[in-house]
Design a protein that fits this description.
The chain contains six helices and 28 strands. By secondary structure, the chain is of the alpha/beta class. The chain folds into two domains: 156 residues, UDP N-Acetylglucosamine Acyltransferase, domain 1, CATH 2.160.10.10; 51 residues. The strands form four sheets. Strands 1-4-7-10-13-16-19-22-25-27-28 form an eleven-stranded mixed sheet. The longest helix is centred in the last third of the chain and has 14 residues. It is elongated. The protein starts with a helix and ends in a 12-residue tail after the last helix.
């Protein structure tokens, strides 16, 4: 059988480059200019968009809900993507709701990203993220765009990480925790409470609020005026006033500030773990 005919039967675009040692399900969909390296395994229900590149020994499964990998994403050796979750409520039934990964992500060696469960519409990962060696993204996580997660960081189930956040190496993020936009988590931090937007947190039981992510904000083009506004908002939030009064003041200020509105929304929509506060 000619290669072109084989590709047609396997839903593989004629410009895709698949190493002869790779195992590709006939149900998988492989778009133009995809590269699949030696000894990769691509299961049924997997869709690889244009210019996805898999180095050697990558495993991608999609049997129980479907796995989509967006254009331009690169996945390095020994990553395992799209397996069912480790949530014991669904482990034996293998119920799943899929995994969607956006475009232009870099997924390094030994990263694992699991399917969603019926508790959500699936595990969701956005665009332009870097997941370094050994990162684990568990079931039902929602990970945004332009995020850096350093080596050996596990995200437990149903964690949310918003755009431009950074998580330092060997940190661990507890289930349901939310990490806000432009926040940074110091290395080896036990993240057991929400991290509010623009903040810097560190420490391990207890974790504490150390201040603003000033270097990150300046690198991303925040003006001195914007940074001063964020500082003032957190002075109000962490003051000794009654919480209801603090929030009323911030809601009023949020009418004229997108940054304060982001903070207010994060506080209002905080997880059951509440949010990190300054060290006492």
């Amino acid at each position: 059988m000619q290669v072109a005919e084989l590709h047609k039967q396997m839903n593989v675009h004629k410009t895709a480059m698949i190493h002869p040692t790779a195992v590709v399900s006939s149900d998988a969909k492989i778009a133009a200019n995809v590269k699949v390296g030696p000894y990769c395994v691509i299961g049924e229900g997997v869709e690889l968009a244009e210019n996805v590149e898999l180095k050697s020994h990558v495993v991608i499964e999609g049997t129980h809900g479907g796995t989509y990998i967006g254009a331009g994403t690169k996945i390095y050796s020994f990553a395992v993507i799209g397996q069912i979750s480790q949530d014991m409520k669904y482990y034996h039934s293998e119920e799943a709701t899929g995994l969607t990964i956006g475009k232009n992500n870099i997924i390094r060696e030994h990263v694992t990203i699991h399917m969603g469960t019926p508790a959500s519409e699936g595990t969701l990962v956005g665009d332009n993220n870097l997941f370094m060696v050994g990162v684990h993204i568990a079931h039902d996580c929602v990970v945004g765009n332009n995020i850096y997660i350093a080596n050996n960081v596990p995200l437990a189930g149903e964690v949310e990480v918003d755009d431009y956040a950074i998580i330092g190496g060997n940190s661990a993020v507890q289930q349901f925790v939310k990490i806000g936009k432009y926040a940074i988590v110091g290395g080896m931090t036990g993240v057991d409470q929400d991290v509010l937007p623009y903040g810097l947190v560190t420490g391990n039981r207890p974790m504490y609020w150390e201040g603003l992510n000033l270097i990150g904000l300046r690198r991303k083009g925040f003006s001195n005026s914007q940074i001063d506004t964020i500082k003032e908002a957190y002075k109000i939030l962490f003051s000794d006033e009654l919480f209801v009064n603090r929030m009323a003041t911030l809601e009023m200020l949020a009418e004229d500030s997108a940054e304060i509105k982001e903070i207010v929304n994060a506080v209002k929509n905080r997880s059951k773990h509440s949010f990190t506060k300054p060290k006492q």
